Backbone:
């Protein structure tokens, strides 16, 4: 990732890039298992400094790529166990994980590991979908349910959960009811159209405070004009500039981990979706605690 050193574990690192090549939880188009390798490939042109913000992450933190989690593509619950245990080792070393997905199922076991160390965490969740479904075809674990499972297990500080970019048709007449009942703030995509999100992020920073929080970024939060390479695209989404405003707006928060999920490269032969994902991960790296600004 980003032509960084590769090592076998997170020992001695401040930040680790981790791939989770899993798409067994996908409900529509598969292929997110190939996201990590394509994001890495498209990250080759990411350079050392953020010229827009002045962030110098590689001068500030020890960063490396620790490869992929070994998942079981034939057994989704077993994959979740493997992910959880891998992330428990990462966070035990004091390292902040930046994850390359993989479908959104992976955020559930990641947050299991993080909450075991930090307690319930706040969440900035960018997505076209709330991912709070209860079950699909009788299964409780899939990419549409991770945040309901997290709520049930007490992994989220529900008063500090913000979901941005939500849109699309629904199976329910009030698709955000569950989220509101938990205390989540839901920001539908239409509330973001044709405007800067800096005012929103000022409110989000105040809401998050100084307690641990996590960024989970589904690439389908962006409009498919910019990110067609994903499994469940929805029209009229966010722009890349708004994505940068959201991530940069998290600077100063107590970020304990981030992920970028649902890049499915075969639906975008240009590689632009993975390129966008690689740059968003760089932006996440740039806003982590401890990053100096030149």
Residues:
């Amino acid at each position: 990732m980003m032509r960084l050193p590769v090592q076998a574990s997170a020992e001695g690192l401040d930040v680790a890039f981790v791939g989770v090549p899993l798409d067994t939880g996908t409900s529509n188009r598969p292929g997110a298992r190939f996201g990590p390798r394509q994001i890495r490939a498209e990250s080759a042109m990411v350079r050392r400094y953020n010229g827009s913000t002045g962030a110098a992450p590689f001068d500030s933190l020890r960063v490396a790529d620790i490869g992929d989690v070994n998942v079981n593509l034939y057994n989704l619950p077993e994959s979740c166990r493997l992910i959880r245990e891998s992330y428990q080792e990462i966070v035990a070393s004091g390292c902040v994980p930046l994850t390359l997905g993989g479908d959104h199922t992976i955020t559930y076991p990641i947050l299991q590991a993080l909450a075991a160390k930090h307690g319930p965490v706040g969440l900035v969740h960018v997505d076209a979908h709330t991912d709070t479904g209860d079950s699909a075809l009788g299964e409780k674990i899939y990419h549409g349910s991770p945040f309901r499972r997290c709520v049930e297990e007490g992994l989220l500080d529900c008063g500090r959960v913000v979901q941005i970019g939500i849109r699309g048709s629904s199976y329910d007449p009030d698709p955000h009811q569950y989220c509101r009942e938990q205390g989540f703030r839901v920001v539908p995509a239409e509330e973001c159209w044709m405007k800067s999100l800096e005012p929103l992020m000022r409110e989000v920073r105040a809401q998050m405070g100084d307690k641990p929080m996590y960024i989970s970024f589904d690439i389908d939060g962006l409009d498919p004009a910019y990110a067609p390479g994903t499994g469940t695209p929805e029209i009229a989404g966010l722009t890349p500039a708004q994505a940068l405003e959201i991530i940069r707006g998290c600077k100063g928060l107590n970020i304990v981990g981030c992920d970028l999920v649902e890049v499915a490269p075969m639906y975008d032969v240009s590689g632009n979706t993975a390129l966008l994902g690689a740059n968003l991960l760089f932006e996440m790296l740039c806003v982590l605690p401890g990053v100096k600004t030149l």
The longest strand covers residues 156-166. The two ends are 23 Å apart (CA to CA). The chain has a mean pLDDT of 98. The chain has nine helices and eight strands.
